[in-house]
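Worked example 2:
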Amino acid sequence: MSRLPPAGAPISFFEFWPGWLFYTPIVLYWIAMGLRHGDLSLPTAANPRIETGGLCGESKSGILDMAGPLARRWIAPYATFMSGNAEAAFAAMTEAGLSFPVVIKPDIGCNGTGVKKVDDAASLRSVVESFPPHTRLLVQELIDMPVEGGIFWMREPGQPRGRISSITYKEVPTLIGDGVATIEDLVRRDRRTGRIPDLYLPRLKRRLHESPAAGERVPLVFAGNHCKGSIFHDGRRDVTDALSRRLDDILSDVPEFHFGRIDLKARSVSALRKGEAFRIIEINGVGSEATHIWDGHTTLYEAYRAQFEHYGAAFRIAAANRARGWKSAGAWSLLRAWRRQKRLMRAYPLND
């Protein structure tokens, strides 16, 4: 398979369930596993050199900074700076050798919250000032490759090779104008976007009354996150030995990284299958999930099976690390990290 699935994939009946409804069985499973292992925070030891194992409150740049020389060659260039200081942002871009357009994102966050595409200096100043004061931000090269995806990888401690358990391709939902209907009309009457208009309309509030020309395409989101409105496609058919070996080499150069999802952009699906022509945008830890479950063809049974398999693996890997002398974050440290992340995310601007 060398191309993405066609647009217009079906919508699963659980795809737009409230988070509390879908994740309640997973939380119960986590509690059961925690009681079995005697530590509810045990999975934070799956990636013991990352704060909370990457479950919550971790620094995105802190994970990328861990990469050795081999892994760094595959990571999109980035630098960090503090919000409220545009000159610091320009200096960070110079340090990383970046030019516009770039991506600005909070260093602590999840689900694409606060992610902004910045095209010029004026926009950069505006974006930098839109974040709360003294917030660490990350500026990163905008990778101009058409395929965006997430690959879940895990490796048992002591084993030389890991395995890819999930590949997901991300599609930007796009409206097509007819020369008459407004953008708001198009959002509300579309089969998919009409189910979740509140995800799209706030980002388009200045354009809601525009009527795109016939055939004009209007992309609705920039951040490739399902909870922000992107469409996900199951790409597990594209797991190959070449891609697996490439990720083994890259992620073995990130100390004590055993479990998580790599978000990337690639030149093509066929290139990705060969383990070539891609750039890593983020490396996510225990708090990430195998996002192929949000493909519209996935059944509820398959989704829960994947979730239980992955979190079961997180407990198993963490238990092996505990036996090697690593410690989990502990319930109180985990709670503090979660509260800090929630507090920060409430203050971030709306993502693009």
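The radius of gyration is 20 Å. Confidence is low (pLDDT under 50) at residues 1-7.
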